[in-house]
Amino acid sequence: MDGLTHVSDRRSGIDRVGIPAGGGIHLNSRIVLDDEFLSCRSSIRRFRRGEVIAGAGVLVDTFARVHSGLVSASTMLPDGREFIVEIIPKSGLIGELEVLRRQTLNLEYRASSNCELHFFEGRLLRDMYASDPSFREKVFSRALARISELELRIIANAASTLQARLASTLLRLSIVYAKDTANNVDELIISQNDLAATLPASREKVNQCLRRLRECKIIDGGQGKIRILNRKALEACANGVSVK
Known about the structure:
The protein is of the alpha+beta class. Helices cover 40% and strands 20% of the residues. The strands form three sheets. It has a four-stranded antiparallel β-sheet with strand order 1-8-3-6. Helix 4 (122-131) packs across helix 5 (133-159) and helix 6 crosses helix 9 (231-238).
């Protein structure tokens, strides 16, 4: 593992892995911290694609900000399949709510690409929460936004075909990936395994849906790269229009 690791990071267990997930969910509405706060002393750590950043079930007293790259947050479903709950882009945070609540991590965090993270001591976040009423309000509003987004995704997944879910996921992830300056808004660099885990669905069924989208010239690409060729057609598919 590249980069700098402080002794305090090791003691808090931020890089321990292999502990089963205990459930829970994190969504795209994340706490946004001011630049002034982020100027505080941090440890910088770099991870290669596929490396585990933090394991579920670990009690941590540090949180991290994604400086570059992408990070996936996942849990295990009852049937043993991995479910990627969220892909966190540049400027997203990891572990901030657990630090505030003094709880263990609910999800496993893994580098979806080569990435750099800046780690901060948990007490800095708790001090700001205790002393700044506007920050407390921001935390509360973000929590409500996460609940609302979760409800919408559950409803959409329950009522949609796999093809519609895949199209919706590709559109959502294209926006997330575009936040990393190395990626184009119409290009996703994601493995088929990760895409299947994001839905979640079997890799075989996802491949069938991807093949139909390619045949209709809606997407293109291979070897872990998907290019959106016709965004309007993909949006129509996400809204239930069948691709034949």
